Amino acid sequence: MSKIYEFTVKDANQNDYQISDLKGKAFIVVNVASKCGLTYHYEGLEDIYKKYKDKGLEILGFPCNQFGGQEPGTNEEIQSFCSLKYDVTFPILNKIEVNGSDADPFYKYLKETAPGVMGTKNIKWNFTKFLINQDGEIVKRFGPRAEPKEMLEDIEAVLV
Q: Which CATH number goes with the domain that contains 92?
């Protein structure tokens, strides 16, 4: 069994969200922010979610305020923004830190297992995306500027 399934994170209401509930599904993990120049990625991610959720794809959004203070809201404010502005239906979980000593353990694992360009472990900016296959293996890490549509070929490959 993949180590990824050992993690428990919190949802926006501070309830436990078991990553093991995603066994057998492919999923994308992305750190999000509502006041970022890349916030429009919500639209592309939602399009992907609607297109592939019935084929076994999940998306988990983790709000993070570590990059330019671009996610200052509360969990409730973030949920409202995502719903009203982008009609997001995939889970937006608890606001976390993705870098530093207070980084969420789940994100520490993601960064260690799938480093970025030139082996960089830290998340560079909002909307860094990790694609995980149905076996819990991280298939690919996409940088912040990678448009969601640029993930389609890799998503379709893991959903076969």
A: 3.40.30.10
